[in-house]
Amino acid sequence: MERTNFFNQIAQMNFTGDLQITIKKGAESNWIVSVLLQNESCGDNAKHLIVPCTLRGTAQELDEDFFATITSPLEMASGLMVNMESFMKQMEEAKKNSAIEKEKSEKEKKEKEGKDKKFQEAMSKSADLEKEHKYKEAWTALPKIADFPEYNEAIRKRMSELEKFLAPSLFGE
Questions:
Q1: Residue 74: which H helix or E strand, with range?
Q2: What is the rounded CA–CA span in Å between residue 21 and residue 9?
Q3: Which of 33, 124, 159, 166 has its CA 20 to 30 A from that of 44?
Q4: What does the alpha-carbon distance between residue 109 and residue 91 come to, in Å, rounded to a whole number?
């Protein structure tokens, strides 16, 4: 059997990703070969616009020109996808480091701290009123769930703790 060195020639090509080769028998003695490079690490959807390199010819013509024809386009497509991914990562890094993003992040942090402080103050006031046996006022002083949905469970738990003191007793205790 004749040696083709097919995989050695592929190994010498410079590309990143998965090489998909489809071979189809065409009319008469012609063959249709489609070569597409996929790079899943590239997050840019523009990579889907890259079309496969399609070759048509006899087995002899493809044997003679296959690698000479696909090497340059494949390496260009590979470089493009690698550059697109690198560009996207750099853009994301620039966005994170931008003054506007830092300012926005600081603002969000301050707002959260202020909201957390309001929540803690309301819970503390409720606890103080409970110590004074002012259960109805303690229940009323609790923060509203609509204002603090992230503390939903804590507020509901505290409400149920206070409600046992608010329930009317049949024995007048």
A1: helix 59-97
A2: 14
A3: 33
A4: 23
Residues 105 and 96: their CA atoms lie apart, in Å, by 10
Angle at 27 between CA 26 and CA 32, to 5 degrees: 20
Q: Tens digit of pLDDT for each residue in 105-159?
A: 888 889 888 888 999 999 999 999 989 988 889 888 998 988 888 988 989 998 8
The radius of gyration of the chain's CA atoms, rounded to the nearest angstrom, is 34
Contact 35, 13 (CB under 8 A): no
Token couple for 62: 């493809």
Residues in the chain: 173
Question: 16-69, pLDDT tens digit by residue?
Answer: 999 999 999 999 889 999 999 999 888 888 888 889 999 999 999 999 999 999
> Using CA atoms, how far apart are residues 19 and 4, in angstroms rounded to an integer?
18
Say what the pTM is: 0.50
Q: Tokens standing for 78?
A: 């590979």
* Amino acid at the residue 147: D
- pLDDT at position 172 is 52
Distances (CA, A) of 169 to 133, 164, 165: 16, 10, 9
DSSP assignment letter at 145? T
